[in-house]
Amino acid sequence: MSITTTLSKAISPERLSDNPSTIEAHSYDAWPVAIKWRQQGKQPCKPEAIALPHTTSEVSALLKQCNANCIPVTPWGLGSSVVGSPLTEAGGVVIDLSEMARTIHVDEENLLVTVEAGKRGDILEAELNDKGYTLNQSPQSLDRSTVGGWVATRATGQLSSLYGGMEDQLIAIKVVLPDGQVVQTKQTPRAAIGLDVKEIFLGSEGTFGIVTEVTTRIFTLKPYRRLETITFDSVNDGINVMRSLTRQGIKPFLVRFYDVDEARHAMQDPEFDKCAMFLGFEGIQVMADAEYDVVLGICKENNGQAIGSAGVDGWMGRRYDFSAIEKVLAQPGGVAETIEISDFWSSIEGTYTELKEALAPLADEVLCHFSHVYAQGTSLYVILVGQVEDAAAAEARIKQFWDISMNICLKRGAATSHHHGVGLARKAFVAEDQGDGMMVGRKIKAALDPNNIMNPGKLGYGVKSHLNKGEV
Q1: Fewest C-beta atoms under 10 Å: which of 136, 202, 313, 389?
Q2: Residues 198, 218: Cα–Cα separation, whole Å
């Protein structure tokens, strides 16, 4: 019996498909390796069917059927992952949540919004802006990612230095377990009543269940904003500034620090020869101006020079534009990749230097910036761009980037991902990164998903095919 026939017991046949074009559309995401697969005509991550549920009840019915028949399930938002998170290695069915995109409730008194998991970020942001609110969750993929996807990958946005990531903004979820049971976590500002169940699913990339509704914090739009660009002669000076402002408890809504190679792009000036930091302050004017003055003092103590807001103004207008990387990848021999990690203040400069030096021989450009700061450390975002002879060589080069970068991070004790997640790109490295935590995750996986149907293979939990009922 085909998968579509089996699943037609759970959902209308009109919302099930094994059409080759639909299958192909769900065989690739935005991971550069997947883009190179497509250019070569390769389809290694090919589902057997696509389901398009409209309700949590339909997701529940689908999972009951899949679990009873050991059919692998891969959740899908908008397919914008850059690490292969929604790609199946075990066939089975992709459950596409993109049509579950309603805004259920905006709670203006408690500053909450509840939406279905397939809600696209920019559409929700526009709806909230019309009411005087904002998510302050602004990944570069805002217009091509979903709120459910943010939960599944523990995403964070460009303003996290003040507003935090999804782990800080998430209030409650509705999730369907692999056996079809529906779980709704309680909405509360904070609680000390045992396990915080939503944390099990945050960052789990669909391996424990499917999130179908999300309640997250929202914020009022701020009345005042002040921006500034600071130049530095060295990466060390900029790192010292970022560490100092976190120690003093100052939280600009925007902190982005570029090494000299990426600063040329950020400033859109090929002759620019300094490192550059973009800073933003918002809120009540007197308070934002006071923070601005204190941070500028810290910058001056570390050889920083304010040059006005033009650089950061320009970036704010194009901050969701990913087209430069897309244009490179559109060429068969075009090589481009983005790898984001994090490390403590005590070691981030060494990690930056080692990554930069190790990757430089393999790319025409190695561009680096630090864009999320915390009391203990910061993220590091590496952009690699180059050109090789064809798509096969580009695929091999991109995989080489990953091997080198991940092994350096593991050796140095850095986190191998800051906000893109694991997917296929980091799968081989996650067990070593997680250490003893991997054992706990596997025990949770075994308890919730004994048939291993949920996104099998992701997060290092193994792959099981319904075709042979065995490990692959």
Answers
A1: 389
A2: 18
Q: What's the rounded mean pLDDT across residues 240-265?
A: 97
pLDDT digit string (tens) for 177-221?
999 999 999 999 999 999 999 999 999 999 999 999 999 999 999
Cα separation, 171 vs 134, whole angstroms: 16
Run of H or E including 288: helix 285-301
Closest CA to 397 of 369, 368, 359: 359
| 128 vs 133: CA distance, rounded Å | 5
Angle at alpha carbon of residue 210, lines to 60 and 141, rounded to 5°: 140
CA distance to 25, 85, 87, 147, 162, per residue, from 29 (Å) = 8, 8, 7, 17, 30
Query: Mapping DSSP to helix (H, G, I), strand (E, B) and coil, where does residue 401 land?
Result: helix
Is 275 strand, coil or helix?
Answer: strand
Which positions ≥6 away from 449 have C-beta within 8 Å? 177, 178, 207, 208, 209
Which phi and psi angles does 235 have, rounded to 5°? -65, -35
- pLDDT band for position 82 (cuts 50, 70, 90): very high
In the chain, the domains with their CATH numbers are 3-98+442-471 (3.30.43.10), 103-220 (3.30.465.10), 225-318 (3.30.70.3450), 323-431 (3.30.300.330)
Closest CA to 216 of 147, 153, 155, 160: 147
First and final C-alpha spacing in the chain: 22
- Which contacts (CB < 8 Å, 24+ apart) does range 458-463 have? 458/85, 458/205, 458/206, 458/207, 458/422, 458/423, 458/424, 458/427, 459/204, 459/205, 459/207, 459/422, 459/427, 459/430, 460/422, 460/427, 460/430, 460/431, 460/434, 461/207, 463/89, 463/90
C-alpha 127/C-alpha 26 separation (Å) is 28
Closest to 351 (Cα-Cα) out of 296, 410, 425: 410
* Amino acid residing at 58: E
Of 198, 156, 206, nearest in space to 418 by CA = 156
> What pTM was computed for the model?
0.95
> Hey, what are 20's tokens?
């080759």
